[in-house]
Amino acid sequence: MTPVEILRDGGVVGMPTETVYGLAASIRSEKGLREIFHIKNRPFFDPLIVHISSISQLSEVVLEVSERMKFLAAHFWPGPLTMVVEKNPQLNPLITAGLSSVGVRMPRNNCALRLIEELGHPVAAPSANRFGRVSPTTADHVRTEFPDAKFPIIDGGSSEVGVESTVIDLTQKKIRILRPGAIDSVRLERTLEESAFADSLPLKRVESEASPGHLKNHYQPESPLVLVDSDKSVSDEVIRKKLDLSESIEAISLELGDDPQLYARRMYSDLRELSAPHRFLIVRKLPHQTGPQWEAIWDRLSRAASLLI
Ligand code: TXA
Ligand code: MG
Questions:
Q1: Which of 158-172, 230-244, 258-272 has the lowest mean pLDDT?
Q2: Considering every ligand atom, which ligand is closest to the CA of 211?
Q3: What's the CA-to-centroid distance between 24 and ligand 1, angstroms?
Q4: Against a cut of 0.85, is the pTM above it?
Q5: Considering every ligand atom, which ligand is closest to the CA of 47?
C-alpha cells in the first residue's frame, strides 16, 4: 500500500516536515489516531497538532478563521507556526485531548504537503519519537525510535529547521506563546506591530498548563545532559560527582557555535549521535549565545537536561 492508502486505511506514516519528522494519521480515522498514541506511548492528555496543505482545509479543523489568523497564516504559512484556536466541534476529541481548542499549522515541506494534498484532508502528527525523547530530524532517527514498528517512513532528508514549530495561543486578545520554536518572538512581534492586530501585543510567554505536552523532562537523550549557565564555571570532575557517575564515564562537551539556525539543524542529531552508555554530555552556555534566536534552543536543552548548573 502507498502511504496515502495506509492513512486511508487507519494506519500511520512517518512524515518529514521542515521542523522535525512527524508520525501522521488521518484526522478522520479514530484507529489511526489511537495508533499514534499507542506507538509513541503518549498519554492521552497531550493534544496533537493538525497539519494542513491548503487554507480551505481549515474549516474541518477550526470553528472560525479570524482575520488575525488569516493575517498570520499569510505571513508564516507554510512554515513553523502552530496556531491554537477554537476547534470545530466535529473534530475527534483524541486530537485535542478533550480541549475546546486545537493546534494547526501548514508545514513547509513538499513531501508533507503532497501527502496531505493526495489524502484530501488534514493529518494529525506529533513528533515521531517515543514520548519524552529527542525529536527525530532524519528518517533514520524515526526508524531507530521504533525499530519494531511496521509503518512506512517517507524519507525527505534532514529537516531544514531542526527545532519544532512555535506554538501560539490565539484564543484570547493577547497572544500567548505556549512553546518557543523556529519562529522567534521578536519576528512575531515585528510582524504584528505593523498590522491591524497590534493590540495582540505584548506577547505573553506562558508555562505548561496551557500546553500540556510541553513538560519539563521532555526531549531527553540517552546519556545524561548537563547544562552550565554562562556565569558559572564548574569542572567535569565536579559535575561527575554531582551526578554520582564513576570515573569511567566519559564527559563529552557539546559546542553550539555562533549561529543559532545552524546549530538548531544539528541539535537533535548531536544529542542522539553523541549519546552512549559510557558517556555524559555537557553544554556550557557562552555569554553571546543569548537573544530571541536562541530561545527555542535553550528551551529544549534545558528540558533535555538532567542537571542545570
Ligand atoms: O514542529 C512541530 O510542531 C512538530 C512537527 C511534526 O510538526 N510537531 C510537534 O508535535 O512538535 P508534538 O506533539 O511533539 O508537540 C505539540 C505541542 C505539544 O506541546 C502540545 O501540548 C501542544 O503542541 N498543543 C497541541 N495542541 C494544543 C492545544 N490545543 N492547546 C495547547 N497546546 C497544544
Ligand atoms: Mg514532541
A1: 230-244
A2: 1
A3: 13
A4: yes
A5: 1
**48 CA distance to ligand 2 centroid (A)?**
9
Q: Enter the DSSP assignment of 129.
A: S
Q: Which helix (H) or strand (E) holds 49?
A: strand 49-51
What's the pLDDT tens digit per position in 191-219?
999 999 999 999 999 875 556 556 666 78
Element (H, E) at 119: helix 110-119
Mutate to test the pocket of ligand 1, among 85, 104, 211, 265 (most ligand atoms within 8 A of CB): 211
User: 160 C-alpha to center of ligand 1: Å?
Assistant: 18
What is d(CA 54, CA 32) in angstroms, rounded to the nearest whole number? 22
Using CA atoms, how far apart are residues 277 and 112, in angstroms rounded to an integer?
A: 35
Complete edge-to-edge strand list for the sheet that includes strand 204-205: 13-15, 22-26, 123-124, 49-51, 101-105, 81-86, 166-169, 176-179, 204-205
